[in-house]
Specification:
By secondary structure, the protein is of the alpha/beta class. It folds into 2 domains: about 120 residues, TIM Barrel, CATH 3.20.20.70; about 190 residues, Rossmann fold (3-Layer(aba) Sandwich), CATH 3.40.50. Helix content is about 35%, strand content about 15%. It contains 12 helices and 15 strands. The protein has a 7-stranded parallel beta sheet with strand order 7-15-14-13-8-11-12, sandwiched between helices. A 3-stranded parallel beta sheet has the order 1-2-3. Strands 4-6-5 form a 3-stranded antiparallel beta sheet, with no helix packed on it. Strand 11, helix 7 and strand 12 form a beta-alpha-beta unit. The longest helix has 18 residues. The chain starts with 5 loop residues before the first helix and ends in a 5-residue tail after the last helix.
C-alpha cells in the first residue's frame, strides 16, 4: 500500500504539511479546541493539516500517570473532531490487537490500515485522503503572518511566501480599495441628523501617499456614499472615487477605461461578498484578515492586519517592495 505521507513529500515538488495535536487526549472539550485552533492557523497559511492524538499513551514513566480515555471513548472524540471540523484524523495503537481493527463495532471511521511497522508503534491508520499535493497555493498571508504563529518560522515556507507574493504584486500598477471594512473597521456610526461618521487610520493614508508618489495609482469603489469619504479622498489626492456602486466589476472596467491600466494590472482589496466580482476582475485579489470566509477563500493574498487597522498600509508596503520601489519611497523619511 502506498504511504499516504510519502505522496506529499516524495514528489518533484514536495509539499510541506503539518501533523499536530496533543500528545494524549485529555478530554473532549480541550482536544476539540486544540483541533479547531490548529485548523484556523493552517487554513490561514494554506498548509495541509492532519490532526493526531493518542487515546492511550502507554509509554509513561509512571504506572500512576494518566494514559488517556481509552479506546472506545478516545475514538468517539476523534470521530467527532473529524466530522464536525472536516479534518483528516489519525491515531496510533501499540499492540496489533484484532479488536482494534476498524469496523468492529466502534464509532471510528472505516479507515484502512497500513502494514505493520517495526518499532514502538506497531500500526498506524490511513485517514480519508485530503487533497493530494495541496501545497502552499491559493490564498496566502503576507509573510509576517508566519511570525505571529511560529516562534521559529519554517524558513523554506517563509521564503516561498515572500517569493510568491513578490511575483504576484510586481505586476500591480494600481491599487483599488473598498471602504467599509477595508479603509475602516466596518462599523458605521450615524449622528442624530443622519450623517455618517467614519474613522480612517492615518498610517493607511501614508501608505496610499507613498504609492501615489511612486506612480502607482489608487482608486476607491464603495457601495455607500459619505461626505467623510469625499473629504478623505480629497485630502489624499485620490481622484478615482466611485461611490454608491453596486456593480463593482463594472466600476473596475470604468477605471481601466479612464486610466488605460488593464484590470489585470490592478490589485483590489475587499472584505465582503459584494467585493467578489471586483476581486475576480482584478489581477491580484486581496482580502483583509477579518474578511468573510468566502472572500478569503477566493483571494490571492490575505493580509495580517484587519480592515481599518493597517491592512491597507500592509498591502501598500508589499506592493512597493515587490516593485523594487521601497528604498525610493523611504528616502523622504530618512535623514
Amino acid at each position: 500500500m502506498k504511504n499516504f505521507f510519502l505522496e506529499m513529500v516524495d514528489t518533484p515538488s514536495p509539499c510541506f504539511f503539518l501533523v499536530a495535536g496533543p500528545c494524549v487526549i485529555e478530554n473532549a472539550d480541550t482536544t476539540f479546541a486544540i483541533a479547531q485552533t490548529l485548523k484556523t492557523i493552517t487554513r490561514t497559511l494554506e498548509i495541509p493539516f492532519i490532526f493526531k492524538a493518542s487515546f492511550d499513551k502507554a509509554n509513561r514513566t509512571s504506572v500512576q500517570s494518566f494514559r488517556g480515555p481509552g479506546f472506545e471513548q478516545g475514538l468517539k472524540i476523534l470521530g467527532h473532531i473529524k466530522s464536525e471540523l472536516d479534518l483528516p484524523v489519525i491515531s496510533d495503537i501499540h499492540l496489533p490487537d484484532p479488536q482494534l481493527r476498524p469496523g468492529t463495532g466502534s464509532s471510528f471511521p472505516p479507515w484502512q490500515r497500513l502494514p505493520l511497522q517495526q518499532g514502538p508503534t506497531a500500526c498506524s491508520w490511513k485517514p480519508t485522503p485530503i487533497r493530494k499535493k495541496r501545497c502552499v497555493t491559493g490564498p496566502i498571508p503576507c509573510p509576517s503572518t508566519i511570525w505571529q504563529i511560529c516562534s521559529k518560522p519554517f524558513w523554506p515556507l517563509k521564503r516561498y511566501l515572500d517569493k510568491r507574493m513578490s511575483s504576484l504584486l510586481k505586476q500591480v500598477k494600481m491599487l483599488v480599495l473598498d471602504v467599509d471594512g477595508v479603509l475602516t473597521d466596518g462599523r458605521i456610526t450615524y449622528t442624530d441628523a443622519g450623517e455618517q461618521i467614519k474613522s480612517f487610520l492615518s498610517r493607511d493614508g501614508l501608505g496610499i501617499r507613498m504609492l501615489m508618489n511612486n506612480n502607482i495609482q489608487v482608486g476607491i469603489i464603495t457601495g455607500r456614499t459619505s461626505g467623510a469619504l469625499t473629504h478623505r479622498c480629497r485630502n489624499l489626492g485620490i481622484d478615482l472615487l466611485f461611490d454608491g456602486i453596486q456593480d463593482k466589476a463594472a466600476a473596475m472596467d470604468q477605471i481601466a477605461a479612464r486610466t488605460g491600466i488593464h484590470t489585470s494590472a490592478m490589485a483590489f482589496v475587499g472584505d465582503d461578498l459584494i467585493d467578489l466580482p471586483a476581486m475576480g476582475r482584478a489581477g491580484v485579489a486581496v482580502a483583509v484578515a477579518d474578511a468573510a470566509d468566502e472572500v478569503k477563500s477566493r483571494a490571492d493574498i490575505v493580509t495580517l492586519a484587519k480592515g481599518g487597522h493597517g491592512a491597507v498600509r500592509e498591502i501598500c508596503e508589499a506592493i512597493l517592495k515587490a516593485r523594487g520601489l521601497w528604498d525610493r519611497a523611504m528616502k523622504p523619511f530618512l535623514p
